[in-house]
């Protein structure tokens, strides 16, 4: 178990270092203020989306008595890189890195907020039966159980508009859930 934890910590460290390098190169101050208002508007929209995503997740977690998630910029950077790799096909295919739990949603069109993108995962909870640890939904409840997985503590997501004009949301969770046959909470 400790080697698994060491692997998780190593991945998080690499993500943190990559994020620091990326943000320092993107935020270099060249003395110009062109686009300041546009950048401020983008940052405000991003902050609102983060708040919406955390709210949807944490309300569902509170309902079943598990602690809230915190936002991870490093995990969000990974989610963003993966989401951008799907821009051409907007496919909700699992990323290759299995150190994270992962949920995805594709919405038609570009005008989706964080709440409307993540709410379908929480809505799966109506099909989940805790006593039997089973799900009656045709597509399963894995997205819901990842949202409320008791050991998960961190969330990072990215929302992009694909070439098709549709919206893709990728959310990654650490530590991941939905392993073994255990109950989520």
Automatic annotation (TrEMBL):
Q: Which residues form the SCP domain?
A: 48-181
Q: Which SUPFAM superfamilies match?
A: PR-1-like
Q: Where is the signal peptide?
A: 1-23
UniProtKB keywords: Signal
Among Gene3D superfamilies, the record links this protein to: CAP
Report the protein name in the record: SCP domain-containing protein
| Upper taxonomic lineage | Eukaryota, Viridiplantae, Streptophyta, Embryophyta, Tracheophyta
